[in-house]
Amino acid sequence: MRLYFQWILTGITAFAAGILPGTVCGQKYPAQPVKIIVPSGAGGGYDLMGRALARKLSEQFGESFFVENRVGAGTIVGTAAAAVAVADGHTLLVGGPSNLVFNAGLYKSLPYDPARDFIAINLIVTQPYALLARGDIAQTSVAQIVETAKRTPGAFSVATAGAGTGQHLGAVFFLKTTGTDMLVVHYKSAQQVFPDLIAGRVDFTVDTIGSARVHVDSGKVKLIAMASSQRTPLYPQVPTIRELGYPDFAVESWIGLFAPARTPANLIDRLRLEIERTMKMPDFRVQMEGNGAQMISMSGRESESFVKSEIARWTPLIRQAGITAE
Questions:
Q1: Is the separation of the CB atoms in 61 and 274 below 8 Å?
Q2: 155 touches 183 (CB < 8 A)
Q3: E strands, 135-241, where?
Q4: Is the same domain home to 106 and 55?
Q5: β-bridge partners, 157
Q6: Judgement on whether residues 275 and 188 belong to the same structural domain of the protein
Q7: Which of 16, 74, 90, 240 qualifies as a FRET site for 318, CA 20 to 30 Å off?
Q8: CA gap 321, 323 in Å, rounded
Q9: Closest residue by Cα to residue 203 from 133, 266, 298, 123
Q10: In which domain, by residue range, is 195 found?
Q11: Which residues, including other chains, have CB under 8 Å from residue 67's CB and lie 6 or more apart?
């Protein structure tokens, strides 16, 4: 009789804990449409990845996954909304360096803690950055650019997508690493930079290869070197800045899917399984790589550790450089 009651108790506990396959506290997951918050506007890298992933997850789960663009205060409004959402797997977040790494160094206080309030389900793609120049510039190598910039400080200008953006941090990191000085010109968005770069009103920018590819291929913008940790398959002949004598230099924009930190572990595991399936699908890979992205080969656990290491790496660099977004 005692064994019988123990068996009953074990079954009840398992049911309540939601550890039965495909259930959360006895309910099927998803029990309703799943919102994926993109903390930036439509058409950007976060949005494109979020929508592509939502389509695939909708097919695999048989329930709607949809993107909601929550724009405001950079990426803070949407990210803060995800941080306080009910942690039942029905609200997820597209995250990357902007909202989950850089903001920790750019702001004295945030309405969310990037390290504590979210768990990485999976990192999915990386968008390598590159050093780009106006098409008619005479200096065509990092060595020539550094030599000229040191000889005539302030002679060059470098454009950014705004204070505190990845483009800004990439530019500042390049200047500090090479010991050079350029006029830093802030724009309101990355889309506003390229017309002026093409027209020769600014000399350089540091941006993702996905954003720059159409301009590079047209010959209107020069691809000087990759700012990423390794060469891109899109331009295998182009060296990285690391290879050219600056081994500590690397700037990359990764994008992944995150959940509120209190989300049950069995839901995280289920989502990881389906996302890993999605990442192996040829049509999804072709879509991502066609935008200049590279698939990330990293488990969910490794993704968690990587994001924490990125916060630890970038926060002091941003503060030491005196960069703020406030």
A1: yes
A2: no
A3: 157-160, 183-186, 204-208, 221-226
A4: yes
A5: 183
A6: no
A7: 240
A8: 6
A9: 133
A10: 128-226
A11: 36, 37, 38, 47, 50, 51, 54, 94
- Asked if omega into 282 is within 30° of 0 (cis), the reply is no
Residue 177 lies inside a defined structural domain of this protein: yes
Q: Determine the distance from the C-alpha atom of residue 288 to the mean position of all C-alpha atoms in its chain, rounded to a whole number.
A: 13
Question: Are both 122 and 163 inside the same structural domain?
Answer: no
Residue whose C-alpha is closest to residue 254's, from 132, 41, 94: 94
State the distance between the two ends of the chain, measured CA to CA, in whole angstroms: 67
pLDDT in tens, the chain (326 residues): 443 334 433 443 344 444 443 444 456 899 999 999 999 877 777 888 899 999 999 999 999 999 999 888 778 899 999 999 999 999 999 999 989 999 988 888 899 999 899 999 999 998 889 999 999 999 999 999 999 999 999 899 999 988 778 888 899 999 999 999 999 999 877 778 999 999 999 999 999 888 888 899 999 999 999 998 889 888 999 999 999 999 989 888 899 999 999 999 999 999 999 999 999 999 999 888 876 788 888 888 899 899 999 998 888 888 887 887 75
Give the total number of structural domains in the chain. Answer: 2
The residues with which 126 forms a beta bridge, in sequence order, are: 254, 294
Rounded Cα distance between 167 and 86, Å, is 33
CA 120 to the chain's CA centroid:
12
Tokens of 24: 């959360």
Determine the number of helices (DSSP H) and then strands (DSSP E) in the chain.
12, 12
Per the listing, tokens 């590819």 go with 213
3-state DSSP assignment of residue 69: strand
d(CA 47, CA 39): 9
CA atoms within 13 A on the CB side of 131: 28
67: helix, strand or coil: strand
CB 67 within 8 A of CB 51: yes
d(CA 227, CA 171): 10
pTM: 0.77
